[in-house]
Amino acid sequence: MKVSDLCNSLDSLYKFRNQEVYDNCGPQIIFEEENAENILISLDIDFNVLHEALEKKCNVIITHHPLIFDPVKNLSFSNSKSRLICALVLNKISVISVHTCLDRKYPLLLANILGFKNAKVFLPDVSTPDEGFGSIGIADEKMIFSDILCRIKKTIQLDYVLYAGDLNKEIKKAVIVNGSGMSFFNDCVKLSIDILITNDNKFNYANKSELFGIFVSDMGQFYS
Fold first, then answer.
1. What backbone phi and psi angles, to 5 degrees, belong to 44?
2. Cα–Cα–Cα angle for 218, 222, 223, nearest 5°?
3. Starting at the edge strand that comes first in sequence, how are the strands of the sheet with 117-124 ordered?
4. Residues with Cβ < 8 Å from 81, sequence gap 6 or more?
5. Is there a contact between 47 and 67 (Cβ–Cβ < 8 Å)?
6. Distance in angstroms (rounded) separating the CA atoms of residues 122 and 177
7. What is the pLDDT of residues 102-143, one digit of tens each?
8. Which of 78, 111, 126, 167 lies in the 20 to 30 Å Cα band around 215?
């Protein structure tokens, strides 16, 4: 399979055009006519990922987060990002990113993994309501906040879970958003949910969530 065919297959599956307006999904560095030999999949890309690709003779890296997010106005070897891009080009390694296209493709997956029954899409797309951002689900049994945290820690295999809220309060309705879901906090308030399970929480949001009676669990970018 040529790299161009692989890129087209990913586009067909995840629809790069459906990315968020701020995003930059799709081909980042592309050697269209090269054969896709070995493929490395990574959350992000840095020199460690590049070295792993070289060791494993991978000429394609598929990432979640885009390598090129903001416009690149110049390439300077005093800049590590520039050196990384140049190294990828010199080694003829193609990079393709999926990010928000992938996020909205499987909105119920994390809820199902965590055992929330009858989960529905939290913010469904207008044209394809079974896709969108996040999910909203009901706890499958009577649980308190500490039970939910233990379930997250065990199921996702975390060393620890960051949280804000009363550990002894009962939890019924949850919103689960992989990636950075704190931007959806106001939507959670409108739906009177009990807990927002996401990551990249900040102190001001944690403080705000307690004021609104919404608990927050932060499982980290990599694991979500």
1. -130, 180
2. 65
3. 117-124, 132-144, 170-180, 195-199, 215-218, 162-164
4. 72
5. no
6. 9
7. 999 999 999 998 888 789 999 999 888 999 999 999 887 888
8. 126
Number of H helices, E strands in the chain: 8, 10
Q: Find the distance separating the first CA and the last CA of the chain, reported in whole Å.
A: 30
Torsion of CA 198, 200, 205, 210, to 10 degrees: 40
β-strands 94-97, 26-29 pairing: antiparallel
pLDDT digits (tens, 9 = 90+) for 143-196: 899 999 999 999 999 999 989 889 999 988 999 998 888 888 889 888 889 999
* Dihedral sign of CA atoms 19, 157, 152, 207 in order: negative
Instruction: Give CA–CA dist 209/185, Å, rounded.
Output: 8
Residues 6+ apart with CB under 8 A from 116: 135, 137, 138, 139, 140, 174, 176
Q: Which long-range contacts (C-beta less than 8 Å, at least 24 apart) are formed by 41-46?
A: 43/221, 43/222, 45/84, 45/95, 46/84
Indicate the pTM of the whole model: 0.86
Phi, psi of 206 (to 5 degrees): -60, -40
Contact indicator for 134, 122 with CB cutoff of 8 Å: yes
Three-state DSSP class for residue 33: coil
> Is there a contact between 124 and 130 (Cβ–Cβ < 8 Å)?
yes
In this structure, what token pair is assigned to residue 88?
A: 């990828």
